[in-house]
TrEMBL record:
The lineage of its organism: Eukaryota, Viridiplantae, Streptophyta, Embryophyta, Tracheophyta. This is cytokinin dehydrogenase. Keywords: FAD, Flavoprotein, Oxidoreductase. Its EC number is 1.5.99.12. One of its GO terms (molecular function) is cytokinin dehydrogenase activity. InterPro entries: Cytok_DH_C_sf (IPR016170), Cytokinin_DH_FAD/cytokin-bd (IPR015345), FAD-bd_PCMH (IPR016166), FAD-bd_PCMH-like_sf (IPR036318), FAD-bd_PCMH_sub1 (IPR016167), FAD-bd_PCMH_sub2 (IPR016169), FAD-linked_Oxase-like_C (IPR016164), FAD-linked_Oxidoreductases_BP (IPR050432). Residues 68-246 form the FAD-binding PCMH-type domain. It is an enzyme of class 1 (oxidoreductase). Its cofactor is FAD. PANTHER family: CYTOKININ DEHYDROGENASE 6 (PTHR13878:SF53), GULONOLACTONE OXIDASE (PTHR13878).
Amino acid sequence: MKFPSVSFAKHNNNLFIRVLMIMLLSCATIRVDFCFSSIPSSLKALPLEGNFSFNENEFAARDYGNQYHFLPLAVLHPKSVSDIAITIKHIWQMGPLSRLTVAARGHGHSTRGQALADQGIVINMESLREQKMQFNTGRFPYVDVSASELWIKILHESLKHGLAPKSWTDYLHLTVGGTLSNAGISGQAFRHGPQISNVHELEVVTGKGEVVNCSDKKNADLFQSVLGGLGQFGIITKARISLEPAPKMVKWVRVLYSDFSTFARDQEFLISSKKTFDYIEGLVIINRTDVLNNWRSSFSPQDPDQASKFISDGRTLYCLELTKNFNPDKVDTVNQEIESLLSKLSYIPSTLFMSEVSYIEFLDRVHTSELKLRSKGLWDVPHPWLNLLIPRSKIKAFSQGVFGNILKDTNSSPVLIYPVNKSKWDNRTSFVLPEEDIFYLVAFLFHAIPSSSGTDGLEHILTLNKRILEFCEVAHLGVKQYLAHYTTQEQWQVHFGQRWEVFVQRKLAYDPLAILAPGQRIFQKGISIL
Ligand SMILES: Cc1cc2nc3c(=O)[nH]c(=O)nc-3n(C[C@H](O)[C@H](O)[C@H](O)COP(=O)(O)OP(=O)(O)OC[C@H]3O[C@@H](n4cnc5c(N)ncnc54)[C@H](O)[C@@H]3O)c2cc1C
Ligand SMILES: *[C@@H]1O[C@H](CO)[C@@H](O)[C@H](O)[C@H]1NC(C)=O
Ligand SMILES: *[C@@H]1O[C@H](CO)[C@@H](O)[C@H](O)[C@H]1NC(C)=O
Ligand SMILES: *[C@@H]1O[C@H](CO)[C@@H](O)[C@H](O)[C@H]1NC(C)=O
Ligand SMILES: *[C@@H]1O[C@H](CO)[C@@H](O)[C@H](O)[C@H]1NC(C)=O
Ligand SMILES: *[C@@H]1O[C@H](CO)[C@@H](O)[C@H](O)[C@H]1NC(C)=O
């Protein structure tokens, strides 16, 4: 397999360079020769409970995206938060002349090498299991977890207390630290905001090796920095996550539209209604002749006779996907509520499909697909994903330009689309929002067939992504990338826009040597500047 060559971000930010110079001059006390002694032996000498591995680190050289490959010098398997702090402090004390960087690796489900550290240290967060989950079941319930915990495990444990987190991702085999470093967006975000809006407190190891607790009230700037902070300001080691009473069951609804405007109007109506569904997403389906047949294994058509006559042909269709939570003793009420809401929508009547599953089965739905894909050898393949945030006023132009146009079929990969209301997002975090109150998440979750040169090949999909981005650019759609990938600092600067200066200030405050998360390629460790 060929890996794209990587050009690191150029450093032309004057402020950044100036402060680094000052830093370096004031570092006279750091022994420079320290930097040139054998790094592995200096790491081995650290007083850790866990250990470093210098061999068989292949797992830490790649990620879910399967397009980038960078071998670290060492992998730290921490047994405690203090192991992480000692390691980072050690590298901090080496000063800017050492090239050594550190990347936390959550579950390695990034798609563009964001959790890799070329010849640096990867911290295998999953070794960190020092903290048992601690539940507070009071009026405003929450749980304290290790940031290395997978969301699926938090769900299992919370359910034992009749509780569950409020805001999710579509797939739960991701770590708390990994999703909080991005945002964590799914079909609950219209109501609860993303996962970064549902966390009360964090414990963070900064780029200087300091362990700091932070929240909205204490060290608020660090707290806001780290949320959506792409791993740039510290390593999240613990998190306090807001919970709510968990429902037992969900009603799961899918309906189809052939007209984009009608689909989007209904989605926006639902996310702004007071009494509404608990989860609202959507899918774009292009030229999938058998779409309804595929659903039949898990969903029942409301009108089997009509549904069997529905033909999708080569058309572009939009699927609205909804769920409503309920407990079995309230099944009549929930049915009435759903009926009332559906009566206000304008989907194609014969395409109403429903299903009823446990809450956990619904939330863990992508894992079911994972098992199927794994059995066909289609999970560990390249994932050239593209995630975009699009202002509401531009979503129609986007859909016209892209669906059925640039993108001619969605045969094997899901394309998600749904709106969220910005009022549930905190604009002080590091997360970059598009302008406008309402914006859409559009997720092209492509997978490539290795060695295919056809439309499902990597080259073809990368070209497709490029064309979509170029279209957005030329049409001035004001689009922001989510889980963004750029190769130069100029591009990151454009991405952050007015927020860039704050981002740089925060970097200088919490990771001034640019030790952390080098795989994001926003900053490069000091040495090249000098
Ligand atoms: C199948 C699938 C479905 C997905 N669905 C959604 C979705 O519905 N919504 C959504 O928002 N996202 C979704 N994602 C994206 C996912 O949220 C990100 O890829 C996330 O980074 C994955 O978590 P991870 O634990 O694997 O992180 P990693 O890939 O290991 O790390 C991500 C980044 O965060 C840094 N990092 C990791 N842990 C920490 C930590 N403790 N402290 C500081 N920095 C850290 C890493 O260095 C890296 O830069 C999905 C991904 C997959 C593979
Ligand atoms: C290092 O730590 C890992 C994870 O805790 C453990 O499996 C392994 O046995 C340890 N190796 C050594 C040499 O101690
Ligand atoms: C952070 O808070 C946790 C629990 O609230 C506590 O155990 C820990 O000692 C605190 N750490 C620091 C550095 O204050
Ligand atoms: C978004 O949410 C805010 C606050 O709840 C509300 O005032 C506003 O009307 C919402 N916008 C839309 C378009 O629904
Ligand atoms: C739809 O897909 C089929 C193959 O599955 C292909 O032959 C046909 O050309 C496609 N139609 C359009 C409109 O792209
Ligand atoms: C965040 O939003 C508030 C209210 O809309 C606004 O007053 C403030 O200036 C914004 N802050 C930032 C950093 O954008």
